[in-house]
Write a structure and sequence with these properties.
- It contains 9 helices and 11 strands.
- With 244 residues, the chain is α/β, with parallel strands linked by helices.
- The strands form 2 sheets. It has a 6-stranded mixed β-sheet with strand order 7-8-9-3-10-11, with helices on both faces. Strands 1, 2, 4, 5 and 6 form a 5-stranded antiparallel β-sheet that branches.
- The relative contact order is 0.19.
- Belongs to the ABC transporter superfamily.
């Protein structure tokens, strides 16, 4: 039975997370609707990356509810969460540096869920990915370790897309990359949103978020400080000095 039409693509309620004995998240709640782009913003150490890892089951966590399009994922291992339809691009990218661009993409395609499923996102053939990220087309035979940080970031996103996710988690996609690459990333993320893909973007770069996202959540010291329309973020964070 299919979930109701208004079911969130991602529902997080009361999320807590730990690194060892250190508690990092304190009851975080957020949602991402189908086809929506949502920003998770805050300074370094606020808990943004931990939130992404907690959704993927990469750190110890518990929640009142953690669901992908109505399906509870709180007890699932990371590989099962990914196979259900979540793509994850971590801050450190984790591309294979000793493989070429093409080989990295082909390796990602091998992980596509057998038989598909209701949460299969759009298919991204290699040439479609090269159209989305033109820089990669010119670098298709280059080793990952010989690419710039921005080029590696594009490859990491492209590799996640070949798994046909319905929801893409992006952790600091603009971190440490040149402004011209950030602009290209903004264009690509806008195209992904237009394709119907749901996005949760962890960022400090509010310009990128403003260009792509519908709504934002502000996190500070592992707690939610503000949520609302992306257009209201600047006026909201200034008095709170979230980035000060």
């Amino acid at each position: 039975m299919n979930p109701p039409a208004d079911t969130p693509m991602l529902e997080v309620d009361g999320l807590e997370a730990w690194y060892g004995e250190a508690k990092i998240l304190f009851g975080l709640s957020l949602t991402v609707a189908p086809g929506e782009a949502v920003a998770l913003v805050g300074r370094n150490g606020a808990g943004k990356s931990t939130t992404m890892k907690a959704v993927m089951g990469l750190v110890r966590r518990r929640a009142r509810r953690l669901a992908l399009h109505g399906q509870d994922i709180a007890a699932l291992p990371t590989y099962a969460i990914a196979r259900l339809g979540i793509g994850y691009v971590p801050e450190d990218r984790r591309i294979f540096t000793d493989l070429t661009v093409t080989e990295n993409l082909d390796l990602g395609r091998r992980a596509v869920r057998p038989g598909g499923g209701s949460l299969m996102g759009p298919d991204w053939p290699r040439e479609a990915l090269f159209e989305l990220f033109p820089n990669l087309a010119a670098l298709r035979d280059r080793l990952g370790g010989q690419m710039s940080g921005g080029e590696q970031q594009m490859l990491a996103v492209a590799r996640a897309l070949v798994g046909r996710p319905a929801l893409l988690l992006l952790d600091e996609p603009s971190e440490g990359i040149a402004p011209i690459i950030v602009e290209q990333m903004i264009n690509a993320l806008g195209a992904l949103k237009a394709s119907g893909l749901s996005l949760l973007i962890s960022e400090q770069n509010t310009a990128l978020c403003s260009a792509v996202c519908n709504r934002a959540y502000v996190i500070e010291q592992g707690e939610l400080r503000w949520q609302g329309a992306m257009s209201d973020l600047d006026s909201a964070v200034e008095p709170m000095r979230i980035f000060g």
